[in-house]
Amino acid sequence: MGKMLIISAVAGLATVLGALIVVALGKPSERKLAAFLGGAAGIMLVVVVLDLIPSAITYGSIGVAFLGFITGAAILWLLDKIISRFHDNRSSGMRDQAYLKKMGYLIAVGIALHDLPEGIAIAVGYAATENLGLSLALAIGMHNIPEGMAVAAPMRMAQVKGIAILGLTLVVALFTPLGALIGFALVTLSQNSMAFLLALAGGAMGYIVVSELVPESMRRHPNYAKLGIAIGIIIMTTIWFLH
Predict the structure, then answer these.
(1) What residues contact residue 83 under an 8 Å CB cut-off, 6+ apart?
(2) Are 101 and 155 in contact (CB under 8 A)?
(3) Cβ(122)–Cβ(137) under 8 Å?
């Protein structure tokens, strides 16, 4: 169990590495932000379409997957409304910063919901064979890097301190080993429960892509947003095929 927790923690900490890259680069330009946000949208879209939803259907059924997806989207919609009420500022500049900060929090929540079943998947894979667990951890760690960048980019643009961004992504990173602990304790987890969790993450990430990432990246710079989306799709599709 110790080794399984270590590899799941390393996979989760890749999120912090992604955030650290953005923090080290400093405040991104409008073009860079558009590309970062577009890239995150492309990455998340591939994860939802090629990984989370098909896996949910495989583990359970179309009905369970649909219910989980709708629930995940509804949770993020509700969080969006709640967070928005706390950032209703008068000046346009402050509104812009608040919007970016809200987006960072929403992305963090979506990734955390995504990382939980991923941690469970690492534990389940590790319980089957050690090599499978390591392969899953490697693949998850690889796409956690750009996900960390997706959290950090809008928050950095909102002038949030680097230490606060890294702290937030560290909290998000803990959801992977937390999921692994849950998976270890519930190796006999029912397939429908796993399907619901996977689809829940898919719905949360789908909401972020459609309602936040794509519109905001296009507003910042349409051409760089499209470039970022294309690059994100290519990167994540390549990773998906490799693992």
Answers:
(1) 102, 105, 106
(2) yes
(3) yes
C-alpha torsion sign, points 40, 46, 49, 50: negative
Token pair belonging to 63:
């009905």
CA distance 31 to 220: 7
SS3 86: coil
Cβ atoms within 10 A of the Cβ of 38, count? 29
Amino acid at 64: V
* CA of residue 240 relative to chain centroid, distance: 15
Determine the Cα–Cα distance for residues 97 and 99; give it in Å rounded to an integer: 5
Distances 73 to 99, 104, 172, 236 between C-alpha atoms, Å: 19, 17, 19, 22
Q: What is the chain's pLDDT, residue by residue, as a tens digit (243 residues)?
A: 788 889 999 989 999 998 998 888 766 678 877 887 788 788 778 878 887 788 788 878 899 899 989 998 898 788 777 766 655 544 445 456 777 788 788 888 878 877 877 787 777 667 656 776 777 787 778 768 877 887 888 888 788 888 999 999 999 999 999 988 887 776 555 667 777 877 887 888 788 888 878 988 898 899 999 999 999 899 878 877 776
